[in-house]
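For the sake of transparency, this paper describes our internal protein records without simplification. Because each token names a local backbone shape, the row as a whole describes the fold. One such record is reproduced below, unchanged from the form in which we store it:
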Amino acid sequence: MSSMNPKYDYLFKLLLIGDSGAGRSCLLRRFADDTYTESYISTVGVDFKIRTIELDGKTIKLQIWNTAEQERFRKVISSYYRGARGILVVYDVTDQESLNNIKHENINRLLVGNKCDLTTKKVVDYTTAKEFADSLGILFLETSAKNATRPEQSSMMMAAEIKKLMGPGITASRAEKPSVKIQSTLVKHQVEVPAKICLRPFLTVMNLQSEPK
């Protein structure tokens, strides 16, 4: 089939963002390859995987990009934001700071609480995170890359939301040209956030010893 007639109806570029150690790389590997490893090292630079899904009778090709937050890669990473249709914002349910560090992005977003299998270490409960997501008007779910709890559902939810907002008349070629620009701004005095959640600028420190789940 020629490039003028692609083998998919939509092409969506999604971004995975979040603190180092939140488990973004593990979620990406679980969704794309259905694999998991305890010893996976923190992302350096940019990584991405592609998977094709079926949704409402349409074939959707997902490009999911996972970016590091190290300062030396910031200029390179910013270029990968161009063309993104949606963002999966990942935090670690056992790390309050990973939720505190979330920024507001002017694009379709999904809040993902990873490592929900670590019930005894959990410090961010479901209700608190759900209320936080609701206050920002974004979708939310909890996942676990380790035991394969809803990793696929997160990307499916994001794809469904983007497809709904785009409308039925968008073709695959037009879907590759996004109509939105990402503008990151810190949320201040706009919503009532749950107790102990203080939004502040996104700052991530590389931690190679973080437990990836």
Notes: Residues 170-174, 176-213 have pLDDT under 50 and may be disordered.
